[in-house]
Write a structure and sequence with these properties.
The structure is a homotetramer. Chain A has about 280 residues and is an alpha+beta fold. Chain A has 2 domains: about 130 residues, Roll (Urate Oxidase); about 140 residues, Urate Oxidase (Roll), CATH 3.10.270. Chain A has an 8-stranded antiparallel β-sheet with strand order 1-2-3-6-7-8-9-12, with helices on one face. In chain A, strands 4-5 form a two-stranded antiparallel sheet. Chain A has a two-stranded antiparallel sheet with strand order 10-11. In chain A, α4 runs antiparallel to α5. The longest helix of chain A has 18 residues. The relative contact order of chain A is 0.10. Chains in contact: A-B, A-C, A-D, B-C, B-D, C-D. At the A-B interface, β1, β2, α1, α2 and α5 of A face β1, β2, α1, α2 and α5 of B.
């Protein structure tokens, strides 16, 4: 009766200080390893002979990190996934998920500091490598990129029914927290860090400049721009919560709200998601 | 280039006080509505004529809740999903997701209080109804059921490689926070609340009594017990994080740890998941 | 220029399994240790000779927990505070703060299970022992006790000014999450667990039965009841956020809201706090 | 028996778009209002005649925000506190607490965008104005400034006892999340925004450049630098959790850890706090 199953170790906190002569570099990642394969004996009979302990997976991450340059999450994910796929118990599928906790250099008199860092916070970059005997699938993404535009955003001309009380808005605040995942189709040896930064730039620029008729409309423009400008991306999935900013009614106090005063709300929120794929 | 897309309103906080003559009842739910269908015009051209505002979805939840008895999340999810599927813009798929925030009566001199309640916290019950022209799919579940057993749990005889340092454990703490989702296959008019409570009882009882050789082993036993005892369930998916409790080494202080003193850790954690389906 | 200072270890996760012949008991606490005293040399000159490492504080908690029966957080806090006050570097004040993560037994066929437990969640019990050469101060409390009453709650006849739009409410929902701290004045050898349970019962019963004219009014009644019924308590501080439940306007949909349908909101919230002291 | 008491509204989410001709500016704050005074009648008898509803406090924040330039949290806090102190019910003390949610401009082709913003996240700036008939007390601060240095940090030569297992570290990672609060002593009309930015710069620069013998040592240096460079600050309180980074033992795998591979831990953590006051 067992159908799918997978197991592994999550929340492996890995920090590496790369001690170059002139300055240090920091890699601060959370790594997760998951294996799929024939583990029926463990499930059904409690036979652990083919079960690699999740504690060993954790050890492996630290040991391999000490010998890998950690150039990018993608390159380390590729190396880790190869190791686990080729080692006992020879699983059929390995997934390595990574999240980057970014650090910037603290500004100092003579430029960015060599060994003191500041966590910018808020946003994180993600990568996931899934590997089977057929090959590797590389997904990257970002989470928690919170953005807002106070011009060039409307929502009007929508469908109305008996439960509709919303009025047309021709000039509203559009605020969201971007969750993006894109799939690379251009091989296993790309300039991962540069690409991720460029894709983020495309998302931001499109959001800022788009003349938005709805969240859906801007989401589509953002996804299209990524597919147009970045040939390495085969598909992108975007989730944009609509973080509503409601104008406050100041009339009871004899004041006019000239589209200036808003209450930022958490609940309820719109939730818009779509996948765009190269046609 | 647009492939999948969906949109809706999440985080709709709904509280209903059902004022019976002798005592009040509380329904405290968070509801989400999502529609899928042909929304290409909105995405690609910013044409909102077929877009039902998410604000209207929220209004609809409150309006329908005032006329529905709210017997269960499943019954209300079925009613809501029918309304949205049959209303403009006639989407192809509707998903209603619900989370229950439970309230118990405060104990009073003459028994449970008629109108004063206590939130037990920790755990929540979930339901999701997905409806298309072909029919409705009803999933239920629970999240955050945190349990621990201090006997009858081992992990030994596992695969070892050069990165393995873990030792066999014949008597360890097994702690987890159960996430469960099951799919009903027995129609749209079941005793949803009773069933959910009975399935939770089966999960708890099996966890407590199982002689565990691993998390996988106990997960399998829990899923099998649900399928065996509850004919209405066609499939169950369980996710059991292994919330490690590490014995503290007291030798440096001239003390012996007789398997009594542990540190409870959050990271890293094992993550075991599987789906069991009626064969 | 250094005035106050203190340092210590927080977040020490301590789990002890007390293995009685017939059944196990669990203590699951988070402990914090803080020392105050003359640490100017460490601050001003980087001289650590009088600095006991916070790592040692953690070790001490585990070592002493292995030899202490852990009857209550208060009794263990008293023992730990005595140890640190009397050990080098002979601090002038020691504070031990403890938080209890409760576990209940899983119900089984023959009664509560001997070694399988369920975390009820939501609410936690707290204790803090502060010790100086003059003696020990014992504070206890609870956090996150979320309660609601759907009858016997009003708010009317309040002060109005030009910014007031709120209307009198004669029958409203009153929901809050109690944060309570009380100071014991009856010595260092009380029945701590029983007392804490009884005080919680008094808080709940008073909340449930009180005919509430405001949050302030009920807060006062709850505090007074504790001081009246529990002679060991010299002072109690209560913080009651007003977790607003707003009636939904159903008129636009041709429906009447008979005080039944509410939206539960997180922000903004009222915040009412007061200390009651034995007169 | 009632001793201290206070009440008010917290979590008031205020967003103002300042629509200048060439570009928009955003103020995104969470505001809390609290009043203290003679509210015994409300507490003891449920008489609300002197109770200004917390809903009115919220309305007042929005109404006054529409007429105030919102130059800084401090200036708006001063205006709000004056209003409440001078209005019925004439409280004896008013506290306005504010938290800033920062927004940066999205970079665009022609420079920073005029109306599109990015939330940098992570860190927040705080202000609190407390006003009585005697005058106003202005505190400012920051929270969540997460920083790390991978050089010039040691901890050695500390006190040892039978529970000490920690070894001297001459080159360790020092990571912390700064919580700072400082008290202004230079009047009510300072350049609040510039000052807060400059103080933050001083904290960062001192952290980066200090040759650290302990967290206490660096905390002291950071506080002293603020008092030395910023005459407007009369007192500063710093709380620096020690976010431990533990070197991973790679010996079991035949590898050497050249002070490069660390596990970042959340619990337990050191907690160091001190107040420095102008002598």
């Amino acid at each position: 009766m067992l159908s799918e199953n997978r197991y592994g170790k999550s929340g492996i906190r890995l920090v590496k200080v790369i001690r170059r002569r002139e300055r240090h570099e920091i890699r601060d990642w959370t790594v997760a390893v998951a294996l799929e394969g024939d583990f029926a004996a463990a499930h059904e009979r409690g036979d652990n002979a083919r079960v690699l302990p999740t504690d060993t997976m954790k050890n492996t991450v630290y040991a391999m990190a000490s010998e890998d340059p950690l150039d990018s999450m993608e390159s380390f994910g590729l190396a880790l996934s190869r190791h686990f796929l080729e080692s006992p118990p020879l699983p059929s599928r390995v997934t390595i998920s990574l999240e980057q906790h970014p650090w910037e250099r603290i500004p100092a008199a003579g430029g960015p500091h060599a060994s003191a860092f500041l966590r910018p916070g808020g946003e994180s970059r993600l990568a996931a490598v899934t590997r089977t005997r057929e090959g590797a699938r590389i997904e990257a993404g970002l989470e928690g990129l919170t953005i807002l535009k106070s011009a060039a955003s409307a929502f009007a001309g929508f469908l109305r029914d008996r439960f509709t009380t919303l009025r047309d808005a021709t000039d509203r605040i559009f605020a969201t927290s971007v969750s993006a995942r894109w799939l690379y189709s251009g091989g296993t040896d790309l300039a991962w860090e540069l690409l991720a930064r460029a894709i983020r730039g495309t998302l931001l620029e499109t959001f800022a400049d788009h003349d938005s008729a709805s969240v859906q409309h801007t989401l589509d423009a953002m996804g299209e721009a990524v597919l147009e400008r970045h040939a390495e991306v085969g598909e992108i999935r975007l989730t944009l919560p609509n973080k509503h900013h409601i104008p406050v009614d100041l009339n009871p106090f004899g004041l006019e709200n000239r589209n200036e005063i808003f209450v930022a709300t958490e609940e309820p929120y719109g939730r818009i998601e779509a996948t765009l794929r190269r046609g």
